Amino acid sequence: MNILVVDDEKAIADLIEIYLTNENYNVYKFYDSKNILELLEKIDIDLAILDVMMPDIDGFMLCHKIREKYNFPIIFVTAKVEEIDKISGLTIGADDYITKPFQPLELMARVKAQLRRYKKYNQSNNNDDNIIDFRDIVINNNTHEFYFKEKKIFLTKTEFAIMWYLCVNRGKVVKSDDLFKTVWQEKYYEIDNNTIMVHIRHLREKMQDTGKKPQYITTIWGVGYKIEK
Asked: Which of 2, 51, 92, 204 is the Cys-Cys partner for 7 at CB 3.0 to 4.6 Å?
């Protein structure tokens, strides 16, 4: 696999190259962003590791330009530690963000995780309407498989149907009666809301998202449920 490394700190770029090479990756290393787009026209890159603060074209701008044409994973490695910087990087198209100083083995683990995710879901199934991949969720309606944070989680048939319907409608509020009619294919009564609540609780438990403010499946009281995009 071909990994692009762009960092104006020579020592860091060289260190990353050593660890990647030891993992048998082909490394294309640059100390600035000048010739990157030309390289991408010639070489099929599988993943990029970009510094943010670089002369001429910074990492954010480079990421933006890459995303105009390519969808391989991008990991930012940078000394910028403010939360807004992380949000900006992820918003413009990065897949992960690690701050300096970092442990090289942690970076390698993130590289491998991103490559697994990309190769398994994005490349071969990018246009498959039966596969939904967003945030930490990958759900495959062809195989009835559910992955959360790279981990495969077993769901019952009903749990899967609920999760699939919520994911299809991600960003929207799914009314309890619509959810019940779709999953159970029966007429909805108020008492049926208890049945839905139990299954939602089980899903949250399996996702280890049982805090007072769940981060994934949120309850819209008196209406239904919602998964944010």
From this structure: 51
